[in-house]
Amino acid sequence: MGQTVTVIGGGLAGTEAAWQLARRGVRVRLVEMRPEVMTPAHTTGLLGELVCSNSLKSDLPGSAPHLLKEELRRLDSLLMRVAYQVRVPAGHALAVDREAFSRRLTEEIAAVPGIEVVREEVRELPADGIVVVASGPLTSDPLAQAIARFAGSGNLYFYDAISPIVDAATLDRARLPAASRYGKGGEDYLNAFLSREEYLAFYEALVGAESAPLHSFEEPRFFEGCLPIEELARRGVDTLRFGPMKPVGLVDPRTGRKPWAAVQLRQENLMADSYNLVGFQNHLKFPEQQRVFRMIPGLERAEFLRFGQVHRNSYLHAPRLLHPTLQSKKRPELLFAGQLSGVEGYIESIATGLLAGINAARLAGGKGCVTPPPGTACGSLVRYLAFGEGERFQPVNITFGLLRDSGAAPGIRDRKERRLRQVERALAEMDRWIGALSDGADAQ
Q: Is the pTM of this model over 0.90?
């Protein structure tokens, strides 16, 4: 094809969009500002760097995240292929070696002749041409301001937080038995078990710890699915025991019974030389994190390779601005993808990047844009963006609640069985849609 498509942002969505364009014969100019200009959360110039968790959520058949990943695999997602190549043990979740993932993805993109990777900061939206904007939740201030001007309103945002990572060699492994909840996926997590007294002491220290100042940020509006642990704790003394410290599905070998509370540590890389504290995203001062989290049994001498921290997470009010094809309502040749488009999560960002890449390629070929069927995970996700909750719109993870449940088998009361049937129908719909695209039909 004659024209070159510009993709802004070398994160998960941008690299997937570039790959989908290139494999359809479209030349791509992939612009990533790192390492020339860094963000508050990134540490490298690698493409697809993961700055929060290293988990791509559940890979358990019958779960909504697994369904979305399976759809992406069938759509030939580069990032899904790389993720499974560098996965690390994490029970029934798909977790990856963070550095290996980014490094391999960077190598894969560099090897594609049709993709030119440009290292520079984009400060304005390109005035013409087909453009995919996937600059992420940490979009630089000049570009964020340009997007806000284009959208006709102030940039929307909330705060996100990342979890601490500790050096495996400094953990007391004798006090951290390996297990997964209910034994799902094997003994892939280290577990710190707390008695009632230990938990209450930890809780009091946590809610009394000093938070880091937000400096240039305005009012903190946290995404409900990723609340800092101290914010969650302030909702009640038992909130953590029903959230990130839930003890269900685990047995404390000291007592032979379910512990009062539990902290899980997930392996960060293939070498297993570091672990992150699952669900412990926070914005406490660094010395406070060290003081409080060393109260967890087995972490008394833990050395922190990365402390938790908070950062801005920008996103569009998608229902006002985007079609389900991810095209801008004001300018059809301008598409948005990734967390900036209004999704939350790694695989959700990959999905929007993949669909934006497909549609940008169709625009480059003079074809109409397409949307996956509403009964699929991909289709339900982009329809939420276009037709979501009006003024109360917030970024969303994939859930079964988003899927349009067409043709549900009546009389099936078992929830697991109903989910499996829903997955079967969704994948059948996706296969038909992929077949129509391959045949050159305008699949909708």
A: no
Q: Are residues 1 and 7 in contact, defined by beta-carbon separation less than 8 angstroms?
A: no
> 9 in the Ramachandran plot: left (φ > 0), alpha (ψ -120 to 50) or beta?
left
What residues does CATH 3.50.50.60 cover in the chain?
A: 4-157+314-438
Q: Is the dihedral of CA 133, 135, 138, 141 positive or negative?
A: negative
Whole-angstrom Cα Rg for the chain: 22
User: What is the structure's pLDDT at 8?
Assistant: 98
pLDDT in tens, 136-149: 988 998 998 899 88
CATH number attached to the domain at 4-157+314-438: 3.50.50.60
- Tell me what pLDDT residue 216 has: 47
Packed helices 64-74 and 346-364: angle between N→C axes, nearest 10 degrees: 30
| pLDDT over 60 at 7, yes or no | yes
CB 279 within 8 A of CB 229: yes
Is residue 85 within 8 Å of residue 376, measured between CB atoms? no
Is CATH 3.90.1300.10 what the domain over 164-307 is classified as, yes or no? no
Residue 334: strand pairing partners:
131
C-alpha to C-alpha distances, 10 to 40, 303, 432, nearest whole angstrom: 16, 31, 31
Picking from 246-250, 285-289, 408-412, which range would have the lowest pLDDT averaged per residue? 408-412
Residue 1 has a pLDDT of 59
Residues 282/308, Cβ–Cβ less than 8 Å: yes
Segments in 152-283 forming alpha helices (H): 196-208, 229-233
Dihedral pair phi/psi, residue 102, rounded to 5°: -65, -40
How far apart, in whole angstroms, are the C-alpha atoms of residue 97 and residue 90?
A: 11
Tell me the HSE value of 273 on the side-chain side, using a 13 A CA sphere: 3
Least-confidence region, from 48-62, 123-137, 146-160, 375-389: 146-160
pLDDT-based confidence at residue 54 (cuts at 50, 70, 90): very high
CB 140 within 8 A of CB 211: no
What is the residue type of 102? S
| Torsion angle, alpha carbons of 230, 234, 240, 243, to 10 | -90
Sequence ranges of the chain with CATH classification 2.40.30.260: 164-307
